[in-house]
Amino acid sequence: MHPSIGGRALIGQAIPRRALRADLLDFTGDPGLGTPSPGAARHRPDHWLLIDEHGRIAGVQPGAQAPGPDWLCEDHRGGLLTPGLIDTHVHSVQLDVIASYGAELLDWLERYTFPAEARHADAAHARAQAEAFADGLLAHGTTAAVVFPSVHAASVDALFGAAQRLGMRLITGKVLMDRHAPDDLRDDVAEAQAQCESLIARWHGTERLAFAVTPRFAATSTPEQLTMAGALLERHSGVYMQTHVAENRAEVAWIAKLFPEARSYLDVYQRAGLLNERAVLAHGIWLDDADRALLADSGAQIAHSPSSNLFLGSGLFDWQAMADARVHVSLASDVGGGTSLSMLRTMADAYRVQALRGVRLSAFKALYTATLGAARALRLDHEIGSLDVGRVADVTVWDWASGAVARGRDALARDLHERLFAWMMLADERNLVTTLVAGRTQYKRRSDDSGAPSTGRPKAAAPPWGADAAGVLGADRGDT
Ligand SMILES: [Zn+2]
Residues with Cβ within 5 Å of ion ligand 1? Predict the structure, then answer.
C-alpha cells in the first residue's frame, strides 16, 4: 500500500518516472522582510512537476499538457506543491518531553530534557525513537533537518540510520557535554573526540548525510572541549557545527560568569574556532550589533525558533536587526522546547513574534526561509530548497484549506499572498497530502477518515521506561 515499504532502497537506485499535478510554488530569491514582493515567488498554478528515474526534478509543464504514458501520474489538482520544508534546529530525543509544563530554559533542561535524553544510552530505545522522529518529520512535511540527538554515539547511529533508510538529507552529530550535566550524560574530551572521529568516518558524506560538531551550549562544555570541537572542524572540511546561543537571559548571565574573558556569549564560540559558514546557532535572541557583525562575517546562520521562544518565554527574536546586518536566518521547530514538528505552525509563530516587535513577516518571506533560504544558509541550494530542474525531488503537496472556516477564507483571498498567508496561519500537518523524498513517496495521508497518518511502517513499540523514571536526575550547576 505504501511505497516506503519498498522505498528503503538506496537513493541511487532507479525509480519509475513520476509526474505530480498541482499549483507549484517556490522561490527564486529572497522576498525580504516587510511588504510582500511577489517577484521572488514563482507561482505556477495547475502544472505538472516531472521527476526523473534518479529522483530529481526533470521539468515543469502546464496541467493541460499531460505527460506521456511512461510517466506515473498523480493528480493533485487544486492542491499546493512546495519544496520539502527544512527544519534547521530540532531535538530528536525530546519528543517525549514536548509540551512539558512550567519551566524556563535551564530548569526545563534539568527537570525534563536530561532525563529523557539519558534513556538514549539504550540502543534499542534510541533506534525506535529515531524511526518515530524521522517518520514524524515527514508526516509534517519536513524533508531535511539539522538535528540534536543525545551524547550517546548510539543515538547518532540510530538517527543517521533512520534518515539513510528514508533517503533524507539530514545533518546531525554527537552532543558534546563534559560538565554541568548529570553523570550519565557527561562525556570527556578524549572520549568525545574519538567518538566524533569514528562517526565522521562512518557517516559524513554518506549519501545525503552530513556530520555536525555539536556542543550543546557553552555552559555544558569545558573550554578544552570547545577547543577540541574547533579542531574537529578544522580537520574535517564540510562538517557542520550546531549549538545554542543567547536563548534566555539567565543563560546569558551564566555564560558571562563561566567565560569572563569573552566579549560576549557568541565570542566564546568565535574564540574556539566554531563560527563558519556551516555553523547553525539556535535562537540568538540576546545578541548585540557586534555579535551580528561577527555572524555576518563568518557566514554562520541563526536558526530562529519562535515556537520554543514563546513556549519557554525566552524572548522576541529581532529578525529586522539580523536582516539589516545581513545575517542568514533560517526557521526551526526546536522540539521539544517548541511544541510542534510542523514548520507551518513555526512560520505562524514567527509571524506572531515579529508582530510583537512591530515587524510584518510576509508569507512569502516565511515560506522562502523554510525552503530556499534555509538551503542557501546551509550551502545546500544546489540540492534542495526549490523546484529548479536538477534539484533532488524533496516535495510536499498540501490542501490549500481544510475545514469550512479555512475554505471560506481561502475562497475570498484576492491575490496569491493573501491566499498563502491564510494557508500559513490556518493550515497545519492535517493539510499535508503527501511527502516525497528524492522522488519517493515517504508519507501519504490516509484516504479514510480516521485522521491517523500512515507512514507505511509498523508502529514503534510501547516505551520501555516507566513514568517514574523521569525526574530522578538533577543537573549539577554547582558553580552558578
Ligand atoms: Zn534546541
Answer: 282, 334
Q: Which triple of cell numbers denotes residue 322?
A: 539580523
Helix/strand/coil (H/E/C) assignment for every residue in 89-124: EEEHHHHHHCCCCCCCHHHHHHHHHHHHHHHHHCHH
- The sign of the CA dihedral 248, 342, 384, 316 is negative
* CA 88-90-96 angle, 5° bins: 165
- Cα gap 345→170, rounded to integer Å: 21
Do 265 and 252 meet the contact criterion of CB atoms below 8 Å apart?
A: yes
Task: Tell me if 435 sits within 8 A of 140, measured CB to CB.
Answer: no
Burial 127-165 (b: 16+ CB within 10 A, else e): bbbbbbbbbbbbbbbbbbbbbbbbbbbbbbbbbbbbbbb
d(CA 375, ligand 1 centre) in Å = 19
Those residues whose C-beta lies under 8 Å from the C-beta of residue 140, and which sit 6 or more positions away, are 85, 340, 341, 342, 343, 344, 429, 432
479 Cα: distance to centroid of ligand 1 (angstroms) = 23
pTM summary value: 0.91
Q: 203-255: per-residue pLDDT in tens?
A: 999 999 999 999 999 999 999 999 999 999 999 999 999 999 999 999 999 99
Q: From ligand 1's centre to the CA of 24, what distance in Å?
A: 32
